[in-house]
Amino acid sequence: MASTPRPAIQSRHTDPARRGGQRSLLLDLDGVLLDTRPVMQKAWGAVQQRHRIDVPFEQYEQHLGRPFNDIMRRLAVTDAEAVHQTYSEASMAVAHLARPFEGMKEVLHTLVARGWLLGVVTSKPLDRAAPLLAQLGCPFGSVRAAGGPGRSKPAPDPLLLALVDLCADPAQATFVGDMAVDHEAARRAGVAYVHAAWGYGSPGAPVPPTARAPKDLLQFLGEGRHSGPFLEGSLL
Q: Which Pfam families did the record assign (predicted)?
């Protein structure tokens, strides 16, 4: 017997009217789910040393969210494949330095318990993303990573493909990112966007709704009611 769709609560920054369909939340990884800056700094340091590249990490960081080869092109770095190999190896070696942002695990498990579908859209390759996402212990219904089908952010393709994975409607979806490319991808996909102020970049213009901390996402998504203390390992 087919299950009855749960009534959806629109995000506060979109049409407040309730519509049918299951709610879905897509999230970027770096700077949204986990603080991976220490990992990226170490990996870029290895690139600088091995390939004698004098581009500072802060300049590399400005382009986060785009595919690695695109970033190399923007930084005028040649031999991008070899540089990427060095970066990937170094990233895997220091992946243990990444940590979930405070409150993020609780938010994700609360949303799962309340019937939300969750997905991840990242420009990080899957082999590097998967071990990081495992720290969250969350059942993501889709993980769209670099190297998959379609164009990368800021194109809408990975967001739309993630929604296909979730059997979700863009009108009932929200994307949380921390870079201008995330904002643009959401706009082009027709998906509501919330900017993560705890992340690494600016959202671009026009300025979108902004969450100051992970726990604020529950308010933006209409799930701000208090349900008692969160117990780790529980979805209640």
A: HAD_2
